[in-house]
Design a protein that fits this description.
This protein is mainly beta. 9% of the residues lie in helices and 46% in strands. It has four helices and 15 strands. Strand 11 (224-232) and strand 12 form a beta hairpin. The longest helix has 8 residues, at 41-48.
């Protein structure tokens, strides 16, 4: 196992607020991903099948247009019952039969300003929990909103790879459709960290870079060769590090996560080029842990529930 230089010391996991509600998710299944040998079925079910979602806020330094911008990032991890055929959340999993697949959903949001105008981005990734039965991420979507306009991308799993549909207000990109074969999705790495770090791809691998990176850089669609490495963080007894380094594009993703289940993500960074032409610079986008809650957030939509945003360190308005 490789050993890396730690860029952060161990970050304490902050208090988890437990507000039990089992009305939105099915009863816990007594199974775990096959390679998560150190996790018991009860541990896995008690965390991921309790009818709540894990919400984590981060202080964000986002590189954009050759400069670092302060902002916030939020990740939401939650399990759902998904349709294999329609690739949407099932309304009635009990009636779906073999069409139902249990997924871990990640919703990842970033907000930051560039001068006078703001950016808002969101990426959603749907990865099967039991990968021995369903080894491939089923779906990925991403959108970017800013004052110039909007872009949207959707990847759908097919028998031999992924179909990519993308829409943009830029003439050079416009609306298009692509296909890629069986590759690792950079966007699914985050879910694999949470489900089973032992399954993280290592060595020389073929990867489709993150959709957000592609939209912000305006790179061509297409897989890239990369090196995946997993190892402990130096000077920390509680953190592991996964690093993805691309061979032909200036981009490296590094994720620090808790060694023990449920493998919370504590810190992440992306080394990449920001800006265009003479303003292009290699900079580092960073997310540093702020707060974390376990909560059935979809029921917390009444006046007064805004206080929960304060607990996450997020603005109310």
């Amino acid at each position: 196992m490789n050993t890396f230089s730690g860029t952060r010391s161990s970050i304490a996991v902050l208090a988890i607020l437990s507000l039990a509600s089992l009305s939105c998710l099915p009863e816990a299944e007594h199974r775990i991903p096959v390679s998560a040998a150190s996790t018991t079925p009860d541990q896995f079910g008690d965390y991921w099948y309790q009818g709540e979602a894990e919400i984590t806020s981060y202080d964000l330094e986002q590189a954009r247009y050759g400069a670092l911008r302060s902002g916030s990032a939020v990740t939401i991890f939650v399990t759902e019952d998904f349709s294999r055929q329609q690739q949407v959340k099932l309304d009635n999993p009990a009636r779906a039969g073999n069409d139902a697949v249990k997924v871990l959903k990640l919703n990842s949001m970033r907000k930051f300003n560039t001068g006078i105008y703001p950016y808002s981005t969101m990426t959603s990734v749907f990865t099967p929990v039991y990968r021995s039965e369903d080894p491939h991420t089923v779906k990925t979507t991403a959108s970017i909103q800013e004052w110039c306009g909007q872009t949207f991308v959707q990847l759908n799993r097919q028998a031999d790879g992924y179909r990519i549909k993308h829409f943009s207000y830029f003439e050079s990109e416009g609306d298009g459709e692509e296909s890629v074969g069986d590759v690792v999705l950079e966007d699914e790495i985050w879910n694999l960290v949470r489900l089973s770090p032992q399954d993280l791809p290592q060595g020389s691998i073929t990867v489709l870079p993150s959709v957000l990176h592609q939209r912000l850089s305006h790179d061509d669609w297409g897989p890239q060769e990369a090196l995946g490495e997993l190892g402990p963080v130096i000077n920390s007894d509680s953190l592991m590090e996964y690093r993805l380094t691309y061979e032909d594009i200036p981009r490296t993703l590094t994720i620090h996560f808790s060694t023990d289940f449920p493998h919370e993500i504590q810190y992440w960074e992306e080394h990449h080029v920001s800006g265009f032409g003479p303003n292009a610079e290699e900079l580092v986008t960073r997310g540093t842990l702020r707060e974390r809650l376990m909560i059935d957030y979809w029921t917390r939509n009444r006046p007064g529930d805004e206080v929960l945003r304060e607990e996450l360190g997020l603005p109310i308005s």
